[in-house]
């Protein structure tokens, strides 16, 4: 398959919450023209796909994107040329979850949390979504606060019950996070913990790698390679970090890391949609305009992927077998240092798209139109 053909098949899911107002722990800076409803988020996601050609699905977050009729919401998305993607649960914002959700010491709170996870599977049935994405804020701030082993048992019980509810064509994607909001011990703090739970559940439980959820200096591409080898890499949440879970535009902080990650994906022949890896964005745009920031992230992932596809694998393999460290490294660096923007412009023209998606958005007048039409929008989940 040619580089262009591989890029043409690439799919990148955008997150509904990135289109609405979001921010830091200190302030949400509201922007004009942000969506007021899930339907308007779909409108914005459809614009991103129309301009990039590779973002045909939008992930939902429940309850932030709750509607009376999810089947109708799915039809609305289909009419606009996209589909609903992963369903993301939320068991971290209610007061009941102060001491955790599925790991909480109170069985009534755990039942409430599990009930929400099962509700999310019900929503998947209505939307036709394949993936249930789980992230838990559960953890401890102080030694002795709770029994660490017992919390793992509670987590396993909740995952087992939710997994049993999935349909035969549905998957559970388990995300991990090093810390925050718990600072002493997090119940799913790393890929190993997520992998262990998924391995116990079955083939349709897989790990999500959020590129912002690691300690500084973590070799994320090693994690990618390991999980690919084990058949347990289900999805990515692409973003950038400088310090912690910054949720900045993909490729903004360390584009070389993004290239190295995509190189492992290409090596494993796991880029095409049939491989089953969901390439998603997980970002919160506090300062930059929402839609252009998402477009830029999509373009950055495309550029990293294009460079990964240009690696001369024959030369790389030969250098590795010969123990030639410099030539092996050069095979990667030659591809990374290639300017792939002309290639991507040609690809977009071949696909009948404007070769400059950012410029096309500016020229479209869409930003000015939604500012005029939408008043009082803040529907991201954080509020203003």
TrEMBL record:
Q: Which GO terms describe its molecular function?
A: isomerase activity
Mind telling me which Gene3D superfamilies this protein's record contains?
A: Divalent-metal-dependent TIM barrel enzymes (3.20.20.150)
The superkingdom of the source organism is Bacteria
Q: What keywords sit in the KW lines?
A: Isomerase, Manganese, Metal-binding
Concerning InterPro entries, the annotation shows: L-rhamnose_isomerase, Rhamnose_iso-rel, Xyl_isomerase-like_sf
What name does UniProt use for this protein? L-rhamnose isomerase
The beginning of the lineage is:
Bacteria, Bacillati, Actinomycetota, Actinomycetes, Pseudonocardiales
